[in-house]
Amino acid sequence: MTGKKQFDVGVALDAAMVQFWRAGHAATSVDDLSRATGLNRSSLYSSFGDKDALYLRCLDRYAERYGHRYDLALSRAAEEPLPAVRAFFDVTLDRIADPDVPDGCLVAQTAMAAPVLSPAIAARAAEALGFQRARLRTALTAARLAENTADDFAVHLAAVNQSLAVLSRTGASGRHLRTVVDVSVTALAHVVRAGA
Predict the structure, then answer these.
(1) 45-74 burial, b if ≥16 CB within 10 A, otherwise e?
(2) According to the model, what pLDDT value does residue 196 have?
(3) What pTM, to 2 d.p., does this model score?
(4) Are 32 and 67 in contact (CB under 8 A)?
(5) How many CB atoms lie within 10 A of CB 35?
(6) Half-sphere exposure of 67 toward its Cβ, with a 13 Å CA cutoff?
(7) Which of 38, 120, 154, 159 has CA 20 to 30 A from 176's CA?
């Protein structure tokens, strides 16, 4: 029908997201996005705006796709804080092991490139990282950790989570990544058992 979009917006966003995730913002051209999505330049611009606007949509889609998985993993933190934190990390490790998506993390990749990105994109990456810390802090507070301890571990665990994504892009093995998680969960276990 004339005047109606003849493509699935979600499928196009997923394709663009994977292209940005694989190559990064700077190395992805509009032609690359056109090839990835199957849309011509005109359709891309009319549907999503410029490259930065499309990147922001892809960051939002990425956050939606994985954010609820993190929330679900941490939902039992009040009763079982250590298994909940391990499940939180499993979301990341499962994503890293998924052959259908690139290694790493679109948010971490964006944060590392922030100095050369638009202020809007850099701010969105910082916001996503802030949400991750906040979700961890909420879970650790529910697990009855003292406020300062919950704050400190939220910062630490969020940083470890991002480091897993970075390490995966350098070819770190799954065993290596699990070791990083184990050390962090062990440190948290000492604090939980001490009743801090």
Answers:
(1) eebbeebeebbbbbbebbbeebbebbeebb
(2) 54
(3) 0.89
(4) no
(5) 12
(6) 16
(7) 154
Residue with tokens 């694989």: 22
Of 75, 57, 178, the C-alpha closest to 136 is 75
Which residue, 97, 76, 106, is CA-closest to 88? 76
The residue written with tokens 């960051």 in the block is 59
Three-class DSSP category at 132: helix
Position 105: which residue type?
Answer: C
Helix locations, the chain, DSSP H: 9-23, 30-37, 41-48, 51-74, 81-97, 106-113, 119-142, 147-169, 174-194
Ranges of the chain with pLDDT below 70: 1-5, 196
pLDDT of residue 36: 96
* Residue that has been written with the tokens 């956050």 in this structure: 63
Nearest residue to 165 via CA among 112, 107, 109, 105 = 105
Cα–Cα distance between 160 and 188 in angstroms, integer? 13
